[in-house]
Amino acid sequence: MAGRAPHRPAPARAVRPTGAVRFAIVAARFNEKITKRLVDGAVQAFAAAGVRSSQVDVHWVPGSFELPQAAGLLARSGRYRAIACVGVVIRGQTPHFEHVAREAATGIREVALATGVPVTFGVITALNEELSVIYPEPGVKHFRLDPEEVAPGRGAFLIVRRDGVPIGCGAIRRIDAVTGELKRMYVVPDARGLGVGRLLVEALEDQARQLGLTRVVLETGTRQQAAIALYRRLGFVDIPQWGEYIGSPVGLCMGKEIINKERSGR
Question: Which of 8, 48, 155, 200 shows the smallest number of beta carbons within 10 Å?
């Protein structure tokens, strides 16, 4: 067949790091109180692999949407052997979550493919995705947790790690003078059945006591039988739906009184 062959762009050449061995962490400031814990976990993971803290640079960007651009600049600089991206994207009532999570994942993958520099993706979305599969009905998912709700004096967000890798998380937020609500409880599938959920609940109850609270409540879904069984073993009982959960066809509200350990003599 006559004619010129179509032009094919040359494949991207791998960027070869020069100088001393260094690694980078790119972190999103949005939901910074949570992301900071992911950064700490990434630093610990590097340390567990024999990487000194002086070999790790942390770079902050406004949000998860900006992670790929920053990772691309760092990868092309030739300074880093690998880059870890961390951030938190929390689902709301609009498609914003899907757009940001998708673009971040796609962009980070393209940086790794284009530069040859390993770029990992550690953005928290797993809980939202799993619950969306379990509860596809519109209007029954209550994912919202604002960063200021876990600020000192108002609440806490805890992450459980195994060998430096996050395997579970949970939060407590004050909702009135004496009551705290458990939120964002999650354990990765391969760590379930190991007591991580119990550890999280007990740690969050301790956080509630430190906040001066005497009651803990939660909302879970009727299709999460393992979670319901755990809460009941830990002393939670069914209570009437309240607030945003009133009228939910799949919502189960539970609560328990928590005892001040010092007063009980424990």
Answer: 8
- For residues 175 and 107, membership in a common domain is answered with no
Q: How far apart are CA 53 and CA 139, in angstroms?
A: 45
**Does the residue 137 lie in any domain?**
no
pLDDT, tens digit, for every residue of 145-186?
Answer: 777 788 889 999 888 888 766 788 889 999 999 999 999 888
State which residues of the chain have pLDDT below 70.
1-19, 90-99, 101, 123-144, 164-165, 261-266
Could you tell me where the beta strands, DSSP code E, fall in the chain? 23-28, 56-61, 82-88, 119-124, 155-162, 165-174, 179-187, 215-221, 237-239, 251-257
Question: What is the span of the domain harbouring residue 113?
Answer: 23-124
Share of the chain above pLDDT 90, in %: 36
Q: Is there a catalytic annotation at residue 96?
A: yes
Q: Please give the model's pTM, rounded to 2 decimal places.
A: 0.56
- Cα–Cα distance, 112 to 114 (Å, whole number): 6
Residue 222 counted as domain residue: yes
Range 251-263 burial, b when 16+ CB lie within 10 A, else e: bbbbbbebeeeee
DSSP state letter for 211? T
Residue 195 lies in a domain: yes
- The CATH number of the domain where 89 resides is what? 3.40.50.960
CATH of residue 250's domain is 3.40.630.30
Is 94 a domain residue? yes
> Which residue in 7, 96, 99, 142 is the catalytic one?
96
As a whole number of angstroms, the distance between CA 142 and CA 219 comes to 9
Is residue 125 within 8 Å of residue 86, measured between CB atoms?
Answer: no
